[in-house]
Amino acid sequence: MLSSKAKYALRAALVLAEDAEGEVWTSSFHIAEREAIPRKFLEAILVQLRDRGLIESRRGPGGGHRLRVPAAELTVADIMRIMDGPIALTPCASRTQFRACDDCVDIRSCRLRHLMQRVRDAAAGVLEGCTLADLAATPTRRDRAGQSAQATRGVAGRLARSSR
Predict the structure, then answer these.
(1) Max CA-CA distance within the chain?
(2) CB under 8 Å to 75, separation ≥6 — which residues?
(3) What architecture does CATH give domain 1-85+131-137?
(4) By percentage, how much of the chain surpasses pLDDT 70?
(5) pLDDT tens digits, residue range 32-50?
(6) Consecutive H or E run containing 128
(7) Range(s) within the chain of domains with CATH label 1.10.10.10
(8) Distance (Å, rounded) from C-alpha 74 to C-alpha 129?
(9) pTM
């Protein structure tokens, strides 16, 4: 399951990706307000992302945070692994932190391990194939609702004009 910490990290990184076009420094206050993330929690997340080299931070007036890695090169999986560790559902399915499950009788004959590896591969494939740039380009629900309302008004307008 995706933790709140990982969700907040992804949402914060998306704000930074969107702001990266102007190469501006984004304050943690702005990120916290925009994404409804508790500020203290956000600060800890930003430190973790900075320490792993994904963002850079600058103090003082005009300071803030910005991506250090281009959004097109930063995957959802990268951020999830930093925040939550391996993507695998069980430790025996992990590629990066493999170990036998605590209750494992015999790892060679476990009938669940291969299924968990397939689940890990499928999830990792999706998450590694989606960059912050991809997510930033995805219309939000508000955007889609506005487009839908606009399209509806357009159709209604055309119908009204054609019935005259």
Answers:
(1) 78
(2) 127, 128, 129, 130, 131, 132
(3) Orthogonal Bundle (1.10)
(4) 84
(5) 999 999 999 999 999 999 9
(6) helix 113-128
(7) 1-85+131-137
(8) 10
(9) 0.79
